[in-house]
Each structure stands twice: as C-alpha cells, then as structure tokens.
Input
Amino acid sequence: MSAAPPMGLLLELTHRCPLQCPYCSNPLALERAGVELGTDAWLQVLDQAAALGVLQVHFSGGEPTARKDLAVLVRRAAELQLYGNLITSGVLLDATMLAGLAEAGLDHVQLSFQDVEPTNADRIGGLAGGHARKLVAARLIREARLPLTLNFVIHRQNIARVPQMIGLAEALGAQRVEIAHVQYYGWGLVNRAALLPSRGELDGATAVVEAARERLKGRMNIDYVTPDYHAARPKSCMGGWARRFMNITPSGTALPCHAAETLPGLQFPSVTAMSLAEIWESSPGFMRFRGTEWMAEPCRSCDRREIDWGGCRCQAFALTGDAARTDPACALAPDHAMMAEAVAARGEAPPDFVYRRIGAAIGNS
Amino acid sequence: MSGVPAAARAPGAPDERAVPAFGVGVKFRFDQVRDRWVVLAPERLFIPDAPAVEILKLVDGQRSLGAIVDDLAGRFTAPRAQIATDVAAMLSDLADRGVVRL
Output
C-alpha cells in the first residue's frame, strides 16, 4: 500500500540567518553555506514535489531571503500551482526584493517578531535594530499587496505582552497572527529554563487569545500553539510522522520533520540520491514511525492514537532517550511527571540565553 | 450541507445581495494528483466535500449570493429556500474562518 501524498513541503533553503533566536527550529548542528543545494537541485525538488501531490511549499531557513535565487524558486513553485509561503525574519527585505517575489507569484508572507518591545525584541533575536527593520518589512509587504501573517514565538520573557502582539498585527494590516509557544526541542530545549512559562502565565495568554479571537472573528485569524509542558495530551506533531509533511535541509536531506535528524539509528536520504516519491513512499526513515504499527502501550490501544499519532518522536527521544516511547506530554505516558519537574526546575529568574550560532550549543563541536 | 441546526442559521444570515469572494491569500483549485478540489490558504488547506465544491465553483467576486443560489436551484432538485439556507450557512462558516468574504 502506498502512502497518501504529502500536503506540505518545508524547504530550509539555508541555515544562514542574521538573527540568533534561542528557540530556533533549526538543528543544533547548523549546516554551513558551502553545503547548500544549488538552484537547479531546488528546482528539481519543486518539480518532483508537485508531481508527488504537495500543495503548499514553505520557503524557510535560516533566513530564506539570504538566497539570491529565491525569486527563481518562487516562480517555479507558482508555475507548478504550488501555494508559495515565505517564512522570513524580514530583516533583509527591501521594496525591490518584495516586488520581485510578488511578481514571481508568491502567495503569502509569514513575518516573525520576537516581541513588541524593541529593546527586548532585539535582545531575544540577538540583532540590534532588528525590530525596527521588521516594522519596515511589514509595511513593504503590505505595499507589495502580499497577504501577511505575523508570527510571535512566546515564552516567559515576552508572554506578558500577548495583547500588544495581537494589537500590532491589527495595526500592521495582517490577515493572520500566530501566537506560538516555544516548542522545546533543539535550541528550545537547550534554553528551556530561560523560556518555559508558568501555568499561570500560560493560562493568562490563552485567555487573551480566546477573547481576541471572538472580537476579531472574520477579520483576523489567530492561530495559537500551546506548549507541551502544561498539556494533558500531546500535540499531533506534524499531523503524524510522514503523513502530511516533508522537510528538506539546506544540503538536501529529506526529513519527516525538522528535528528528525536528532533521532539515532535513522538514515534519511538526500534528494540528490533519490526521488522525493521514493523517499516518501519507501525510505526506512520515513516508514519508521508512520501510522500506528510502531506504537507500544499506552498508545497502541488508545482511542486517540489516530488523533495525536503518539505525539512527538523527537521530544520522546530528547526527554526519555527512546524515540518509540509515548511522548511525555501525554498524561498517560509513564514519563509524564518529567514535564512538571521541568516547570518546577525553571527557577525564579531566567538564566542567560544560549544563542543560536554555529558551534554554540553544548555537545555541538 | 445538512446537519446545520436551524437555530444556528437564522440570526445574522447574509443578505442575498452580498457578493462572496475568496479571502486574501486563498486559492481554490483542482488537484490532479488527488482528483479533488482543494482550498489553499496561509498555513492551512482543506479538501471541501462535493456540495461545498459546487458552491465554491460559483464564488468569483462577481456573482451575488442570490445568483449562486439561483444557479444551484436550477441544477439540483432541492427547494430554493432549502438551498439558500444551506449555502448561506456554509459561506458564513467559511467567512468566520477567513476563507471567503461576504
């Protein structure tokens, strides 16, 4: 039986980025510019993705606008009727680049902010003047008539300002805003104590989002992503392992999620060695946790096994050392107590950030 | 399009003169691989069921809600009032989610 085709494809075009956010979704072992795929290889990926059934392509990074060939890739995606989404920090954008991307057929821009308070935003992102440049970028995106989503990653050092974040999205003319709690693997896990909110802080943010959703219904959508550490049930990570998404690293390694390379013993093929269809349908790494066959108890007999698909494999491995265990985020998991222990251990004052830099993380030599 | 409770339809039902259009950044297209119509939106996509596809095919930013209902009433056997109620309910729901504007 062949797998249903993927819906979305995330291209990490580069790991280069002017920002150094301490919760970056890129791996601790960042790939250097010299190993990045060339334009032709990325064009081939897009062609194969469309043939396979991918519907949406996310041009991401690192900072994707650091790639000189971004508009060429966007144009090919548009020709293939792939819905093209740019995920950007905005700090390298200018009017000329945006006009080129709009003309090439880009469908949507997701612009990240680190906070609404400029000094704190620049401190979190690790780039002086970054926040001011993002405000300019938002205006330029609207002037290029591109649909805009604002993305705020929230944590204990900015969570008090969720109301102002939603207000900024309204003021900048965004159609959508994402209020996304940090997900704690990779850099986020390294910086967990500096980022993890308390239960009270989480509940306060949730209440603000729910009220704003009601007020803004039909005008602006709010997507809200909660942190696992206060949850009773795990998230449906990636909509299930290798069920909906594929991620490709700058050097062309195809992954079921952006953190999958942290799992030991799994081999993930390069798009330069194998077609996307072969990788999706038959590579052992993609098949390893697809569906429910791999599950042990309590997942195996759980009536939610096809709702949350056992939660996050990378989180299960990072916290328990076994990628096939139930995600500790689940209250039914034998390891669930470690989530509350992590919250208790976060300390009164947040420790300093370990910024996302090549070679910065412990164990990343 | 059934299953919408009557109480949920009546208040705030859209005017038949309203002209529905797709929301900003929303695309509705046929996917050859799945042999299905799909709605693509920022960070979201969904595969509408057959009745929704018939309605969405008529959403072009020019036809009024009333004209969409007339078109469907001419092709399907259900009473016009029933079709009007169902179309309004579905488009109102999609408008709340930002997929269409009414």
Q: What stands out?
A: Chain A has 13 helices and nine strands. The two ends of chain A are 42 Å apart (CA to CA).
